[in-house]
Amino acid sequence: MDTQRLVSDPSGLNAAADILGSGGLVAFPTETVYGLGADARDGEAVARIYAAKGRPAFNPLIVHVADVAAAQRYGLFDVATRKVADAFWPGPLSLVVPLAPDHGLSPLVTAGLDTVALRVPAHPLAHALLTRFDGPVAAPSANPSGRISPTTAGHVMAGLSGRIDAVLDGGACSVGLESTIIGGTPLALLRPGGVAQEDIEAITGPLAVASEQITAPGQLASHYAPNAALRLNADHAEPGEVLLGFGPMPCDLNLSDRGDLVEAAANLFGQLHALDARGAPIAVAPIPNTGLGRAINDRLQRAAAPR
Ligand code: AMP
Ligand code: MG
Predict the structure, then answer these.
(1) pLDDT at 288
(2) Which stretches in the chain have pLDDT values below 50?
(3) pLDDT of amino acid 221
(4) What is the pLDDT of residue 222?
(5) Fewer beta carbons below 10 Å: N end or C end of the chain?
(6) Alpha carbon distances (Å) from 145 to 5, 52, 117, 151
(7) 199-205, long-range: CB within 8 Å, 24+ apart, which pairs?
(8) Closest among 302, 233, 297 to 264, alpha carbons compared
(9) What is the value of pTM for the model shown?
């Protein structure tokens, strides 16, 4: 694909919003770094973020919205998180809150968790794009997995040209650091970033110390894992098992009967939840270990590991 470089005028913003609306990927500037955006309600669009970045694992993504009112459509804010939102939004702070009823987000965005990370960015172009698109935008940093986060449109092109639909050029990012992430009850610092801990604590009081596992960036302990036992690389269900299929085969639910890994990624968490609700052990068909299949297998192996 040819990656368009869109300029920051109304026609560029409209083009970027249209691409998001049709399930495409647009890199856009925020005050932290350039984000790689997709419609957070569209599982296949979100799966394409992982494919474009070559990410080997599914971690929950931050959902970007235009203002606090929009954030409340997707997340539940208690008094403490609402105070923090009012103080630091728009700005480089992400808040992890419980999902709101009828949030409509793809389970791939939250990696199957019942919480969501939300942020209202301050960058005027990010704000203009979110307002025009009028929907939630999932956006990790716009770089290939394992490479440095991009702070110019040139960095984005150097890493992702040919793999995304467009980049909206807004010059250099001012903060250049990822957003601070806080969340949980009591409120804890999950990742240090663009807003100083002291400034948050001036409003919240001392933040809780997050447990070892949750502080490692991107390596949440609170990964969704089904209650049911998982048996991988199964070509059929044993008696009493339910079968999660891939490709044409008899099964209870199919990640993608046409064997499409993007579709499979989009369906993964929702179908695991649905089968888990049946209360039986889950057998899972083999998934090819290429492209998005790697991230799918990573998640399945974690879910199948003894715990
Ligand atoms: P990135 O978008 O690459 O800057 O990373 C997003 C960060 O937010 C990752 O470290 C995630 O683990 C964290 N995150 C996103 N959603 C949640 C959530 N629901 N609970 C806890 N952490 C989250
Ligand atoms: Mg990153």
Answers:
(1) 97
(2) 212-219, 221
(3) 47
(4) 53
(5) C
(6) 21, 9, 20, 15
(7) 199/88, 200/84, 200/88, 200/93, 203/83, 203/84, 203/87, 204/80, 204/83, 204/84
(8) 297
(9) 0.92
Closest Cα to atom 12, ligand 1: which residue? 218
pLDDT tens for residues 200-212? 999 999 998 776 4
CA nearest ligand 1 atom 10, residue: 218
d(CA 119, CA 56): 24
Which amino acid, residue 213?
Q
Ligand nearest to the CA of 150: 2
Residues with CB under 6 A from ligand 1: 59-62, 96, 110, 113, 115-117, 140-141, 178, 181, 183, 190-191, 217-218, 220, 222
Distance 218 CA to ligand 1 centre (A): 6
Which of 30, 50, 59, 74 has most ligand 1 atoms within 8 Å of CB, for mutation?
59
Domains of the chain: 4-216 (3.90.870.10), 221-304 (3.40.50.11030)
Give the model confidence (pLDDT) of 227-261 as tens digits.
899 999 999 999 999 999 999 999 999 999 999 99
**How far is residue 289 from each of residues 6, 181, 214, 297, 299, measured CA to CA in Å?**
35, 32, 27, 7, 12
